[in-house]
Amino acid sequence: MKKLIKLAAAGIMAASLAACGSSSTTAAASSAAATKAAESTAAATATTVPTEGHYNITNATGEKVTALYVYKTGSSDKGTNYAENGLDDGASVKVDVKVDEKDASGYMQTVEFTTESGDTEDSFQTLSLEEADFSLVKVADLSSSATQQNVTFNKDASAVKAK
Which residues form the signal peptide (predicted)? Predict the structure, then answer.
């Protein structure tokens, strides 16, 4: 009888160990499947880097712009002159830029323009690939305005009003 009890106990222990091994294998497989699913979800929702920029550029220099370039910062090739026929003061031009996906991450551009009087500005060298409207203004006009500018902010700083 003692032999029978020992034999039965050994059988129960063996079955228990087999069940534990089976559930740990199942748990490992289940964990691996969950990890793989999470990785593919993360890949699907990963942020894509823009490969295009669309800009509406307005001449606010006070004179005609005779040359306007938007090119990769640091490049010696300026590409297209977007003011080839002259861009009158107050006039706008649409500039579209497209780059290869492999070059898009961290892509910066320089905006360079020359006015009819011969002044050249290229101080804006950090234009990213985005959709934006902006104006061409001489740096000297920004740093030494003849007109005093008074600006007030609402308490929450959400709105700006010039006086």
Answer: 1-18
Q: Where are the beta strands (DSSP E) in the chain?
A: 52-59, 65-72, 92-98, 109-115, 120-127, 131-136, 151-153, 160-162
pTM: 0.60
DSSP symbol at 87: B
Token duo for residue 144: 């030494």
Collect all residues with Cβ–Cβ distance below 8 Å to 161 and sequence separation of at least 6: 151, 152
Rounded Cα gap, residues 57 and 78, in angstroms: 17
Neighbours of 92 (CB within 10 A): 16
Q: What is the pLDDT of residue 46?
A: 61
Output Rg (C-alpha) for the chain, integer angstroms.
33
**Residue 19, both tokens:** 């069940």
